[in-house]
Every structure is written in C-alpha cells, then in structure tokens.
Amino acid sequence: MKKFVSTLFVLLILSLSATSDAKREHLIEGRTMGTTYHITVVTGDLKGISGLKEKIDARLNEINHVFSTYMSDSEISRFNALHRAGEKFQVSDDFIQVLEVGRKIHQLSEGAWDGTVNPLVDLWGFGPTPREPKMPAASAIKKRLQTVGFDRIQIIAPNFILKHSARMTVDLNSIAKGFAVDQVSQLIAASGFENYLVEIGGEVYAAGLRKDSKKWRVGINKPQKDAAINAVYKVVSLSNKAFATSGDYRNFFEIDGVRYSHIIDPHSGYPVSNGIAGVSIIANNCTLADGLATAIMVMGVEKGISLVNRLDNVEGLIVVEKSDGSLADFYSKGFRADPQKQ
What is the CATH number of the domain that holds 155? Predict the structure, then answer.
C-alpha cells in the first residue's frame, strides 16, 4: 500500500532542550528514498561523530537498492519484472525481514494492509505517472483485484520468494521507510551512542533522552488539507519508542463533490471513505508502526482501536474529520499526548 511523504502527518521534531555545556546535539541530515532524513545525536564530544554520516548514507543506499520501485535494478523492481508465476527469486535478508513484518501486519489487519495493492493505486491515478482524475470502470477495478493478495507472495527459506500470479507486483513503501529508521537506529547504537532521534520521511525512532535529560518531543501536523505544514496538532513524548503516521488529507481528488483518497481498500478496490484523516502509532519498532498506521487507515476506527488495544507495546491515535470539518480523536488505552500542547 503505497504511502507518499506528502500524505503523512508532518512530524516536527521539537528541540526545546535547554543549553547544556556537558552535552551537545549534533544534527545529521540528507536525502534518501525520495524524501529527507534528520538525525539528532546527543554526545559530549563531537569528535566521536566523525564518519557516522558516511555509514548512515551507505546503509540507506543499500536499503534503497532493495526497495525502490523507481530503480529498475533494485531487488523489488527485478522481482516485479518476472513474468512467470512460481519462479524462485533470491533476495537479501533486508527483503525477507520486511516481507515477514508485512505478512504479520497483513494477518493482524485481516488483509487491510496489502503490499500488492499498487496496481489499484495506479489505476486510480495515485501512482508515479500523473493523469487526469477520473473514476475507473468497475470492470477495470475487478480485473486489477485479481492481481492483489499479499498471501500469494511466498517466502522459501532461506532467501527466496515467489509469486503465484505472474501479474502480481510488490510495493513495500508503506513499511520500507520504517525499516530504514530501525536500521539506522541500530547502526547508531552499534556506534556507541545511547541518546538520539532518527526521522526519515516523517517516521521516527527516539532513543534515550535529549541533552537536557528529558524525553524527545515529536509533533503531529494538523491533519487537514488547508492546515499549514508547521501547524502542530498534538505532541507526544518518546523514549526508546518508534512513531509513525499515515494520512489522506493531502493526496486525493474530488469529482462532483465526492472525495477520493489515495488509500485504497484491498478488498473492494475502491478508496476508503471512513472519515479517518490520519493515524499515529507508537511501537517498539518503526517497521511495525509504519505498517499498522497504513492498515488502520483502511480498517476504520472501531476495528483499528480494537487491534491496537490487543497488541503489546503498541498505542495509537486515530483522527477523524467529521462532516462539519471538525476533528475528533480516538485513543487506544495507553496513548498519551502532552497536555500543554493539545
């Protein structure tokens, strides 16, 4: 289920820590996976940062060469180009790890998250090739639905996969950025740092504490199409947690007053129309949080909150835009936003 940066809640890293002589925050930033990344590392000696950006960029480049659907020689593009069903295709450990998480989310969400839904996304005009917004024919939707079904992508140990329909394609963008956040976080930890914040395309992992020994604070952009890019709706405090969001308030089109979102229901083949403007998920890792946020956009409020409440170490916020344009919040049992910023 493809997720574009422009459709995410914009996560604003709120660096409000006081000046400290003992600790300093070093910012590392760049571009990757068609978006930007920003990493803050807390250290008492900036000399220890030397070479860290090069390591991060190298790891992100590896990940991009696995999951980019824009690179013809990436692993996922080469797999999608296969025209024979049942042919084994060798992939990297990274690919297998993300597929395994995708399979878990697919099962937990009863198919609401589906990494093979991209043909429908393209049909509705939300793919990489812009086209005039229009309603696809019902027959075209039915035909594309025949190529959808994440459970028809098979993993064969140790590092092979195959598809059971030659026309199937896989797009893991909705969890690949979360995976990249997790991998960069592990790299930074392995380099000896305990306190840092990693953000890639709006997905976040916060380790330890800021330089003022307080939790990291992350803001959620107001999930409305006319909201300023820096309009903060909620703020959460994080330590040793991942945070991911998904929303539909920036990538959609309207026909005869009806709004059609880029979030496609894999069961029906049509854009979701459940009123959800955005979903924010807190979890132990960003790969899971990323995928759950997308899945719950499809599942709806009742099923989404029920799922989150059943999962250990997962919390969520669902924001619904009501018919009058106002916003309503639905929280899992343990989700907490900073009250002074609500």
Answer: 1.10.3980.10
Q: What order of strands is seen across the sheet that includes strand 327-331?
A: 24-32, 35-43, 196-200, 203-207, 241-247, 276-283, 315-321, 327-331
Instruction: Answer whether residue 206 shows pLDDT above 80.
Output: yes
* Whole-angstrom distance, CA of residue 201 vs CA of residue 297: 18
- Model-level pTM? 0.91
Question: In the numeric block, which tokens belong to residue 165?
Answer: 């329909």
Neighbours of 57 (CB within 10 A): 16
Give 46's pLDDT tier (boundaries 50, 70, 90).
Answer: low
The closest alpha carbon to 3, from 38, 39, 30, 33, belongs to 33
- 7-27 residue pLDDT tens: 333 444 554 444 445 688 999
pLDDT in tens, 125-137: 888 777 777 889 9
Count of domains forming the chain? 1
Establish if 129 belongs to a structural domain.
Answer: yes
Residue 294 domain-assigned? no
In a domain? residue 131: yes
Q: How many residues does the chain have?
A: 342
CA–CA gap between residue 65 and residue 76 (Å, rounded): 8
**Tally of CB atoms within 10 A around 75:** 20
Q: Is residue 118 part of a domain?
A: yes
Retrieve residue 82's tokens: 């296969």
Q: Regarding predicted confidence, which is higher, 19 or 280?
A: 280
What residues make up the domain containing 133? Answer: 81-173
Q: How many angstroms separate the CA atoms of 37 and 5, rounded?
A: 12
